[in-house]
Amino acid sequence: MKKRVVSLVLVTVVGLVALTGGLVASMGFDGALALVIGGKDPAAIEVTKAAESPTGDVEITHSSDEGAVSIIVTPFKEIIVNIHATTATGRQTTRFLKLNAALVYDENMPGASYIEERKPFVRDAFQDYLRQLSERDIQGSAGLTVLKAELLRRARSVADSDAPREILIADLIVQ
């Protein structure tokens, strides 16, 4: 009986440590501490859709003690390319890959003002990369992670800036 109580306490302690670690990893130390002890409320995030933007860009502003961060989410037109695939019998074939993605960039970073005018070139770089892929390259979560990292690297290269922060993928369909 005593051994069972000790193991139950040990499992509970390990679970609490794992929960705390996950909380700190996801929110950061200050955010997790504020959540636990009831500190300051996190800075408000204001999301507004840019009314005058025909491209459907969304601007997100975040104000904090460190200063204002202005994030722009700009979607790309749908990209459809052929990719290589291997059938169950080993025959080489082609499949269609359809991608709907958006580029997230920080408006306050150097070079961010050029991203909108270089957007067609970024899309072209995306298409060049996507045409080189095989169906196996985009399988699973690891494939998706590599795909997003490669697209982000190309966006930063074409924009000649570190302003691009992330690639958001709305649809990724292989047919």
Automatic annotation (TrEMBL):
Membrane topology: Single-pass membrane protein
Superkingdom of origin organism: Bacteria
Compartmental location: Cell inner membrane; Cell membrane
GO term, biological process aspect, one: bacterial-type flagellum-dependent cell motility
Keywords of this entry: Cell inner membrane, Cell membrane, Cell projection, Chemotaxis, Cilium, Flagellar rotation, Flagellum, Membrane, Transmembrane, Transmembrane helix
GO CC, alphabetical: bacterial-type flagellum basal body; plasma membrane
InterPro entries found in the cross-reference section: FliL
Location (main, coarse): membrane
Annotated Pfam families: FliL
Family to which this protein belongs: Belongs to the FliL family.
Summary of the function given for this chain in its UniProt record: Controls the rotational direction of flagella during chemotaxis.
The protein's name in its UniProt record: Flagellar protein FliL
Organism this protein belongs to: Pseudooceanicola nitratireducens
